[in-house]
Amino acid sequence: MKRDLMDIICCPLDKHDLDLDVESEEDDEVVAGTLTCTDCGETYPIEDGIPNLLPPDMREETPA
Amino acid sequence: MTDHTDRKRETAASFGAAADAYLESDVHGEGRDLETLADWCADATTALDVATGAGHTAGALADRGVPEVVGLDASPEMVRTATDAFDGVAGVVGDAERLPVADDGVDAVTCRIAAHHFPDPEAFVAEAARVLTADGRLVVEDNVAPPDPDLGAFLNRVERLRDPSHVESYTVEQWREWLRDAGFTVERTARFKKTLDFDAWAAAQSLDGETRERVETILREADADARDLFEIETRDGDVESFANLKAIFEATLSE
């Protein structure tokens, strides 16, 4: 993802801003990292350049 | 809520498995409806395509020169397919009913032939109103049910049997009511029929022999009203084609 996507995206739960923590970046694209809600603290992964902003109850690793 | 969430997870998983088939699908990739939808959003600066699937709508918006296009889907595989296939499309994995998008964050929201999978389409419409700027527009296309409740029930029975992730196709009037309730003004409504080849339509969901036979039997044995409305064509006892009803709505938040 490009950093300017941060202007649009937010926490899906409470709609607050997210903090970006970059683990790796290539050609202006954040490839891996974490997005953390500035209010509730929920974290969302950036995997292979794509932020996964599904609410925690819809993420694959979370048991139904 | 839990039932909804489980349902959405299952839907996302089934679409992930079908990602390549959707990219090749004529129903989703071609047609004047896609042109219409892109035309109505061509002057947007930042567009969000909800339930982007293989990204056809997001790609069409980028082609029309919308500077910033975000394709969102609950299936990570679908988002990957969309961003790989279309230049100028940024991908986000997310839930249509709990959008990870800031208030007033975009000036166009699109959603094409997907809302019949949503457990709570009204929540999606409210979220679209929230994320749109005051001068923004929502353009939704979906399969719709006819006003006659019996014919609507027939349609939804066929669709659910073919595709368990089908929740419901709603009437045009139901859509307009949801849009108005969320503060939108419905500016335009385009209605049309799309003729579907039965074999291709069944294959899109990888129907096995028994389910396929049940769906075909329901269509073959439909009463005269259903046969007429859905233009069910048979030859030598096989269903050749039928038509489904679609509508595109353009809604704005302006007074």
From TrEMBL, chain A:
Origin: domain of life: Archaea
Record-linked Gene3D superfamilies: 2.20.25.10
A Pfam cross-reference name: Trm112p
Protein name: Trm112 family protein
UniProtKB/TrEMBL annotation, chain B:
All residue ranges annotated as the Methyltransferase type domain in the record: 48-140
Annotated PANTHER family: 2-METHOXY-6-POLYPRENYL-1,4-BENZOQUINOL METHYLASE, MITOCHONDRIAL (PTHR43591:SF24), METHYLTRANSFERASE (PTHR43591)
Protein name, as recorded: Ubiquinone/menaquinone biosynthesis C-methylase UbiE
Taxonomic path: Archaea, Methanobacteriati, Methanobacteriota, Stenosarchaea group, Halobacteria
Keywords: Ubiquinone
Classification via InterPro entries: Methyltransf_11, SAM-dependent_MTases_sf
GO molecular function annotation: S-adenosylmethionine-dependent methyltransferase activity
